[in-house]
Each structure stands twice: as structure tokens, then as C-alpha cells.
Amino acid sequence: MSFSKLDYCQFLIGSQVNYTLTNLADHLQSWSHDTINRYLRGAQLPPRLLWENAREVMEFDALAYIVFDDSVLAKQFGPCIELTRRQWSGNEHRVINGIGLVSCLYVHPDGRCWVIDYRLYDPATDGKTKLDHVADMLQSLREREIAFKTVLMDSWYATKDLMLDIDGYGSSSSSKIFYCPLKRDRMVDDSGGARPYRQVADLEWSEQELHSGKIIKVRGFPKDYKVKLFRVVVSSHRTDWVVTNDLTCDSTQSAQQACAFRWKIEEYHREIKQLTGIEQCQCRKARIQRNHIACALLVWLRLKDVAYHNGQTIYQIKRGLLHDYLVQQLKRPTVKMVFA
User: Fold this and answer.
1) What is the SS3 assignment for 287?
2) Is 90 exceeded by the pLDDT of residue 241?
3) What's the pTM value of the predicted model, to 2 decimals?
4) For the chain, how far is it from start to end, CA to CA, in angstroms?
5) For the chain, which terminal residue's Cβ has fewer other Cβ atoms within 10 angstroms, N or C?
6) Which helix (H) or strand (E) holds 119?
């Protein structure tokens, strides 16, 4: 019997700290480090594999949300690892060496979520930007006929081409809505052409507009294309300017509630980094890194499914694997505590 992705995924589920191939080989009798390395160098585990597994466990809903965002898988101590490049990390708040991961998360209206697609940011190989990857995943959603209503994304993805693509996606009876924040210096017009474009942060707001939003035109968009802008005060130090193509949305609170689902992808980023070892592979070859990331995402999907079925958090499922070990050590400790 040969080594397979099932064996590797089982290792990522079971290991709590050390996710290296050396550690895996040290705990196996059937396969050596070289055998495992050879498998990961030769296997082809594409993003499609994630979708094929996700569709078997997820629950579709016509009112669901699609969330796009990217994260950097830190590789500060691996400058020779292929796929890595210097890029901004929102988590670290600085430029670090790492692998860019662009994910597509499907969020059910009840809050459950599943990762259904992803891309690795590697412009040196495929010449694609993160925006290109999101456009590709939107096309995959279209081809797979996945049911959803709203797309949520960060200000980085609030571009004309992407927003128009979402708005023009589907027929009039199944049109897609987007909500995304604009950067404070984005040029917009709320006067119907009577005044020059201004930065969105410089707009004046009446009490009615603060409650219900205002219709604006974003510079560079088609002449007659309008969106609705909401001023959302997140905290005393932060204000978001959220736009949507849903001109019927008449409440800032409603826009804020829709945008709140975007937090699910932040939880997903934290969970894959803390529970699957997605950043911990030390191998240099790009193919091994790609396969490791693919398996880590499959593991997150599995842990999440088990958590939903057991009414627990994904952290309880992962940490709970140590329960039996701790019980055994308390009863019959391998290393007994003694006092002088």
C-alpha cells in the first residue's frame, strides 16, 4: 500500500504542534521521509479537489453569501522556499516573506461556512493578480451553478471590472448583490454631476443619509452606473464607507449586518493557521507547498464538518484529540512527578 493524501491529511489532523515531514516519518513504520517527500513532489492536488469534497458536506441556500479575501502564509524563515515573495500582511501589519492565499468562502445565512475554492498568488508563474484569481473563482461559481445572493469583499477588490462582473452576473431574476468598503481617498460624486468628484471621506452627510445612505457615482464607472454608499462607524477610530449595487437597501444597519458576515473569512484565516499547520511546511519545492496547502484546507473542511455535527467549535474538536492521552497520563504517567 502506497502513501496517499489521506495519510497526509490524517497527520495534519492528528498533529498538534509539529507538522514537518520529519515528524511524520518519525511516527510511521510503513513509510520513510523520502517516500513521503517523493509523494508530495509528484502528486497533483488542484483546487478542484476542495470543491469536490465541500459540495458533499455543505448546505446550499439561495440567500447565502460568497466572501473573497486573501491572506499571507508566513514563511519568514524560509527565503529559499518557492512560491514565497515579499508582500503585505494584514495580520503582521508589515511586509513579510510568505505565500499569498486567495480564498472563496461560502457562508450560509445561519452562519455556517465552507471554503469552496482558492488560488495561490504566484505571478512569476501564471502572471495573474489577486483580482484575476477572484475573477476566475467567480467564473467557477457561474459554471458550477452554485446558489448564493451576495458577494462580500475587502476594499482591495472594489474595482470597476470586478464590481461590474458581479452586478452583471446571472439574469435579472437571480442578480447578485455586492457589499464592499471603499478606501477613504476613492473619488466619488454625490451631486449628480453638479460638482467635481471628491474623496469619499470628504462627503457631507445629512441625518437622513446617515440612516439610509446616499446614491453616488464612482469615478471611472459607466456614466449611468450608480451605487449606494453607507457611512458605517465601526469605532471611535474607524469609519467604513460601504457601497452596494442593491439600491433598495435603505438602512445603514442592514448594510452593516450584511457586511458582518465578512468576518467569517477572518475566522477561517485564523483557524487554518492555528489548527492545520498550513504555514508550517518547510519544504522548498513549489509542488510540495501547493499539495501541503491543499491538504491543510481539506483538513479544515473536515474539522469544520465534524464540529458542526457535534455542536462544538473547531478548536474543541482539534484540542479534544489530546483528551484520551491526558486521561491516560493522569492515571498512569509515563514520567512520574517526585519531590525531594
Assistant:
1) helix
2) yes
3) 0.93
4) 51
5) C
6) strand 113-121
